[in-house]
Structure formats: C-alpha cells, structure tokens
Amino acid sequence: xxxxxxxxxxxxxxEPNCPLAYxxxxxxxxxxxxxxxxALQDGTANRRSVFEVYTRHLPEGRRYGVVAGTGRLLDAxxxxxxxxxxxxxLYDNRIVSPNTVRWxxxxxxxxxxxxxxxxxxxxxxxxxxxxxxxxxxCTLLETLIxxxxxYDSAVAAAxxxxxxxxxxxxxxxxxxRRTNEWAAVAxxxxxxxxxxxxxxxxxxAKTYGLKPIGTSAHCFTLLHDSERDAxxxxxxxxxxxxxxxxxxxxxxxxxxxxxEVAGPELGCVRIDSGDLAEMAQRVxxxxxxxxxTQTKITVTNDLDExxxxxxxxAPVDSYGVGTKLVTGSGAPTCAMVYKMTExxxxxxxxxxxxxxxxxxxxxxxxxLAYRSYEYNLANGEHVVSGSxxxxxxxxxxxxxxxxxxxxDYMVEGQADTRYQGHDAxxxxxxxxxxxxxxxxxxxxxxxxxDPAIPTQIQVL
Length: 460
Prior knowledge:
Strand order of the largest sheet: 13-12-1-5-3-17-18
CATH superfamily of the largest domain: nicotinate phosphoribosyltransferase
CATH class of the largest domain: Alpha Beta
Helix content: 25-40%
C-alpha cells in the first residue's frame, strides 16, 4: 500500500457518515487479530462461520430492550479497512505476522449480516444480529459490533422509558457534556431511535440530520450587567420565539422581565433548578397572568424516567435530559455477547457449535426469530435454531398470528442503504413506538419486573 493510498484512506474515514478520524478496523481487541493470524497459519481462516449477537438477560428489572446502532454499524463497515500506518503498527508490535499483514491489505468485509430492525424491541436470547462469512472476516468485527450495539441500545432503551413516561411531551438530548465526546454523538442518535425529538449536540445534528436545540446558559445572564440586558440581547439575536433561562436569580422577577422584554409572543422559558413541578406551576400561573398564555415551559436538571413520570401533573411542555440518558439510566450496557453458533467442518458441512460453560452456555445453530400475537397484542418471542436446510423448511403454525423479526442488513458485503442515514433513524423511531404499543401494558411500567413477554426456544 502506497503512502498516497494510506492518506486517501484516512480522508475517507472522515466522511460525514462516519465521524471518525481513524479506522474502525482498529476498534478491536487484540485477540481478534491474533486469532486471525493463527487461523491463517493453521488453515482454518476460510471456514464459513456464523456469529450471533444476543443478551442472556435484560438489565435488572427491565421489561424490554430496544435495538439501536445497526445503522451506525453499517456506516462503520464502509470504512473498515487498514491504512499503511495501521498495518505497520500491527507488524511492529508483533501482533500479526508478515503473511497476515499482506492478507489484510485492501481488506473489506464481504459477509452477510441480518438481524432485528433498528428500533425493534428485544428480549433475552433474541438473535439481535447474525453475521455470516468466513472466520477470518467475521472475527474481526466482534468488538466494533458489541461496542456499538451495547451502548446505543442501552441509550435507546433509556430514551424509550423516558419518552413513555413523558406521555407525548417532547424530550431532548442534552447529555453531551456528561460522556465521552464520540459517545455523545452516538447517544444523540440512539436517543432519537428511543423516541427523543432533538439534540443539543451539533455534530450529531449535522451528521444524522437531527433537530438541533439550545439557546443560552446561566453564564450568558451573568455576563451582562442585568438580567434585562441579557434577555434583550438574546431576543435581539434570536427573536421572540427563543427560550429564556429564568432561574439564574429570582424566577418570579425573571419571568416578569422576560415578558416585558419579549412581549406575550415569548416562545418559551426554561427552569433548571428547584422543585420543578412546583416552579412550573407558579411560572405557568404568572405567564398566564401577564398575558403570555402561549409561552411554553421546558425543564431540565438531572431528569430520568422516574422524574418525568412525577412531572405529569405539572404544566410542562418539554424536557431536556442529560446524564441519565447518556448513561442508560443506570444500565450503561446491555450485556450483549458475540458468539459463534455454526462453522464449516473438515468435510465442508456446516456444524452447529456452542459453549457449554457454566452459566454461559450458548445455543448452537443459526436462528430464525418471530413474535406471536393474540388480538394484536404480543404474547411470545420465538427463537428457532437449526441448520440452514431445516430453517428454510420451517413454517410458523397456521393458526398463529406471527411476525418475522429478521431483516437483511448486508448481503455478501453489500449494505442495504435503507437502514442508513436520517430517514432510517426516523423510521426506527416510528417502529419502536409501534412495536411498544403492541406489547402488554406492563412493558411500559417503570416498576421492576420480568420481561414483558416470554422467549420460547425451539431446536429443529
């Protein structure tokens, strides 16, 4: 690989769909490359293999999970290649042999990926993603896949619980300052899959076409000689439809000043401290008394799904959520794993394989997955395991209302672009809402409990 090719590769990695200035092909654990190296040397690297992503359990007490990140994964796979500097790093650190370096030059993933749609609800043992190809290419994707799906799905599940608790009032992502800078971008995207309406993170808004939100912080008020001057400056710059932050000093005085400066056409006021329900009630009354009956109220300040549920009786129009969103509201990972379930044997036949480890056993064989319904209400998650031949001849019971849960994301290295970009995010957002509405009502409870529907496993 020439220096020119390496430079071009690095530039390609910075394209809008992939906010990275470095190769996703090094977002791996070292053992993925050492396994590749050993498999190339012992002749097993080109054995056809099937890997599966699933979780053995939901976070404690959660009723469901939400798949998120698959679109981001497809974006990353477009850039999953190694530049000259990357190859030199692997060689200089004796991670791989010279033969493996040569094999990795110009590497592209040419396998097939299928799984649950982004925005789909999942449960324990749901085959969220299945990756099929030769061992050499499939093993390199483990860490990248898990790091994306585990985090994005955790944020999307938290966002879904918050959106549900908000009862239709818009929720906005304001968590960028509470997590890693790249995680903030991923979280903003995942939050929209989970039902949020916008983000304060401008890179996320630009990259994924999300609604950007935000006006001013307390420092803007403190910068000015008076609160009136600050409000006037903001109105002059942003117009009367802006949101004024009213809790820097005295809220009652701030609301009065805000209406005096902006008039009854003031768009919104934000409250960021105190007893939010009580303050919102008082502010609503004051706004109405001042004639600003159409001015909306938004609240922020360490909100989570429980706080949002507790604010239902308050006259609040929207919410800004930060720390709890980007940390999965207490469940920052989904404990998803990436396990081989089938591989080619010496005779060329595909052989189901699985771990037998205590408390970590895996179900051998590739999978089908469908959900069953009665009266348009989900009553079971069904996972069917077996050889490709047996799965192709499998049919769901004629007397059962069912829905297939698997879609093809990538076939022989070619991604289905319908699952990438802004439109895919919005489709996933709508899909999550539709699928959640078809679960038993207990799924929307914030009380700890069992998964909303049971998972039934069938081995053919």
